[in-house]
Amino acid sequence: xxxxxxxxxxxxxxxxxxxxxxxxxxxxxxxxxxxxxxxxxxxxxxxxxxxxxxxxxxxxxxxxxxxxxxxxxxxxxxxxxxxxxxxxxxxxxxxxxxxxxxxxxxxxxxxxxxxxxxxxxxxxxxxxxxxxxxxxxxxxxxxxxxxxxxxxxxxxxxxxxxxxxxxxxxxxxxxxxxxxxxxxxxxxxxxxxxxxxxxxxxxxxxxxxxxxxxxxxxxxxxxxxxxxxxxxxxxxxxxxxxxxxxxxxxxxxxxxxxxxxxxxxxxxxxxxxxxxxxxxxxxxxxxxxxxxxxxxxxxxxxxxxxxxxxxxxxxxxxxxxxxxxxx
Length: 327
Known about the structure:
- With 327 residues, the protein is an alpha+beta fold.
- The chain has 2 domains: 2-173, 3-Layer(aba) Sandwich (Glutaredoxin); 178-326, Jelly Rolls (Sandwich), CATH 2.60.120.
- It has 6 helices and 19 strands.
- The chain has helices spanning 31-34, 49-52, 55-65, 86-95, 109-114, 141-154, and strands at residues 2-3, 9-10, 12-13, 22-24, 38-44, 70-76, 102-104, 121-125, 130-136, 186-187, 208-210, 221-229, 234-248, 251-258, 263-269, 287-290, 294-300, 307-314, 319-326.
- The strands form 3 sheets. Strands 10, 11, 12, 13, 14, 15, 16, 17, 18 and 19 form a 10-stranded antiparallel sheet that branches. A 7-stranded mixed sheet has the order 3-9-8-5-6-7-4, with helices on one face. A two-stranded antiparallel sheet has the order 1-2.
- Strand 8 (121-125) and strand 9 form a beta hairpin.
- The chain is elongated, with a radius of gyration of 21 Å.
- One of its GO terms (molecular function) is antioxidant activity.
């Protein structure tokens, strides 16, 4: 690996983008089209809480440095099959205000071309098409922005003036409360389900009547009602059902989507309406509507954070749930 006069290494070259299954916000782009621009390649998927918390920074950089020649290129590589649906990706791009090109990478071809393994993953490419920097996961925002400025100056755009961008993130995009976060990401599909507490355990691949245990242990979860637990999702057809989780974190999110039309739900916290602890997708009485596949913020505790028992009920069914995440 060579180093340049700026001290940033050359890690490789921008690979082909031909494997993208679609493009949003732009006609198909090639490395040759991007030559002469500094490029930030941002791998994401719309239900990933770790990427969602980086999105305000990427948006801010795209806006701040566009006139100096920065191109932000989002690459949407799905974690779940439902995220490969182009209509879902298009809605996510609009909802999240991503005003830059997005390569839809539903077959993982661009992911493999980069040798990537993470969401989120950020790669900085110089004006000559060379990869000069990468960062995996959240954080390192000041470092990443310094790299952008360095590469723009190297490309002849002049020194980037002014202070670094200021970001005030809200809702699901707000930084995690790492000090109090004890609950791990928890999948509800059969392939990666852990700490499942309904009596009798999971019965994958077929409709099964589940019940809550007499008491949920810490960091465990359970189903109630007639659910079909598929590889990636727990699916509730047209009848009532509930999910419970005993968690310890400021925020609780659930990636889920409707099977058909909009779905009503209600959230309880320790058996009561969440009140001031309601997340952005529910009201203080705990009611909300599931209208698309995405990550829903269901709890955000305003005060002391301790172990709580969460429950979400779907009186009419019609939901597919994938993963709990916390913040």
